Amino acid sequence: MAKWLAHARFIIGALALLFVVAVAAPAQAQQPSQVNPTADAVKEDQLLQQMKIISGRGTIPDAKSYNIEQPAGRDWRGFHQVTLPWITAIVILGILTVLVVFYLIRGMVKIESGRSGRVLVRFNAFERFVHWTTATCFIILAITGLNITVGKNTLLPLLGPDAFSAWSQWGKYAHNYLSFPFTLGVIVIALIWIAGNIPNRIDVEWFKRGGGIVGHDHPPAYRFNAGQKMIYWIVVLGGAAIAASGYILMFPFYTTDVTGMQWAQVAHGIVAVLFIAAMLGHIYIGTIGMEGAFEAMGTGTVDVNWAREHHSLWLEQENAKVGPNETQRQPVHPHATPAE
Ligand code: HEM
Fold it and tell me: What is the pLDDT of residue 338?
């Protein structure tokens, strides 16, 4: 009997334990459903708004990585992903449209008195080398930079992920390494041409008379007219701004915190697009916009009549160096026929 009772006690105890486990386990499993994700998200959002930052704890030395989210980060992401691509598209397509329309209305600015067949040196070999090195770097920096801003929206669908990744990787290397010769080029340009690019009263007159581009006037100018002086200062100041912001991005967190990095990217992106727009205008005038301009940077010489129409005061200075008889100037080639 005692043995039977012991068995019965054991079975009842086991059943009771089974019951407790069976009831408790689902209750435990139900626990997470008592969490309300929406309410928690609202709490987290309030926390984020009040504290401006959500940080965790970490073990690696870089404490910056403990920040999970901050409102400024979301604003910056919106700028980078949406606002900047739109600004870029509008400014660049806008300037291209303006240049095409201007060309259709104005056409090429001709040498009105025709070519004289005699030339004078405008840019020596060193000046041309610096110009073309800097310009080549600029064009590659612009293309590879624009790839970062709008490549994902434009090229990725065309090239597919593999080709786009490979191109972007090479683009990024090019952007980083060519920044150095570009910066050097801007510094040398700043030094060698500063003397001719200080604004003066002649520039005001030049602007008032439309610079010879709007209309058919030929306002006097020394070696660089007011339009070219503007390009010089855009290159020097824009180059300084883009280099400073670019090196902050290239060497992250050496000089600033995450907010500074975000500002550097905003500045770099905006200066880049304005810089590109200005250089498109510069390229237009140096090629199809004005007869005789390209050869100044191509061969290094310009026709005497071109100089007289666009830089009359500079021609006077140059003539004073060789004597008043400018027909002594070097002919383009022995059989050139003067138009005069
Ligand atoms: C000293 C010269 C320069 C340096 C050090 C530099 C550096 C950088 C760096 C580090 C980035 C970030 C790349 C990334 O997110 O991985 C960048 C982006 C960019 N750069 Fe430059 N850069 C320079 C010149 C230029 C020039 C001359 C242009 C254009 C004419 C340019 C246009 C851009 C553009 C459009 C971006 C992408 C902006 C964005 O959407 O985030 N950069 N640059």
Answer: 42
